[in-house]
Amino acid sequence: MSNAARLADTLPRSKTDMTGRTVVLTGGGAGIGRAIALTLAGHGAKVAILDRIPERIDAVISEVEALDASALGIAVDVADEQAVEAAITQVAGTWGKLDVLVNCAGIYDELRPATTTSTELWNRVIGVNLTGAFIMTRAVLPHMVRSGSGVIVNIASEAGFRGGCGGAAYTASKHGLIGLTRSTAWGYRADGIRCNALCPGGIGDTQILSESGFDETYAERCFPIMSLAGEPGVPQSIADGILFLASDLSAFVNGVVLPVDGGWNAG
Predict the structure, then answer these.
(1) If you classify domain 16-261 with CATH, what class do you get?
(2) Which active-site residues does the annotation give?
(3) What pLDDT, in 10s, does the model give residues 73-85?
(4) What 3-state class would DSSP assign to 206?
(5) Interatomic CA distance for residues 35 and 102, integer angstroms
């Protein structure tokens, strides 16, 4: 062994080194989810990419494998309890453990206020953004409790703080996700499990916005708040925040709701 190699063996491992960690990532097929998958894989993690659309999964897996990292893809709707349970069983059976869950899957609500939000739209948005995160969390917790450690990161939103950044369903779902985060952090800290939320501000090049229309009338009412966001960020900014919360850099951080929004929340 060379002197350089001996020296390397004596140095502490980087706290962002995710080598040996297994990550379950929902909504990993595009936008912010894709950036998270590539970032965590680039730091050594094995990443299970869950998304509704198989073609998206395949594309991201190819990119992850180009980094010489391991990836597993599963097409699943996070609001489907049986499908989620089957996916988690598959990941645990493949890799033997579950270290990190990142709940990134989310849909928008066309910026609709309560009066124009159908019950169908409400149920779908709450089902994916909040109930889906709950179902995923419930599915992974027994694995983490058995191992005595685990990290859960929920991607909420600036709409989790404010009433003018989304429609009724989206805003309610993100406020609820922050509540779920805090409850999980408090309820499972004695089991060695951390749970935090990251709240993106305005981020360009994301699938959630490109797939949604807008209620123009309500958008005018939201404009005074939305205009405070400033220049949009990029998905990598969120991925870097997820790396912090998923890695040992944040080993003593639990129950935190972290805005990553260029200062929008400070105004």
Answers:
(1) alpha beta
(2) 170
(3) 999 999 999 999 9
(4) coil
(5) 12
Residue 161 CB neighbours (<10 A): 18
Over residues 137-185, the pLDDT tens digits come to: 999 999 999 999 999 999 999 999 988 889 999 999 999 999 999 999 9
Q: One-letter amino acid identity for 167? A: G
Q: From CA 172, how far away is CA 157, in angstroms rounded?
A: 11
HEC assignment per residue over 121-156: HHHHHHHHHHHHHHHHHHHHHHHHHHHCCEEEEEEC
Flag whether pLDDT at 1 surpasses 50: no
Domain residue limits, the chain: 16-261
- As a whole number of angstroms, the distance between CA 154 and CA 122 comes to 20
- The helix (run of H) or strand (run of E) holding residue 224 is helix 216-226
Rounded Cα–Cα distance for residues 47 and 49 (Å): 6
H-helix or E-strand spanning residue 223: helix 216-226
128 vs 81: CA distance, rounded Å:
11
Q: Half-sphere exposure of residue 112, counting CA atoms within 13 Å on the CB side?
A: 17
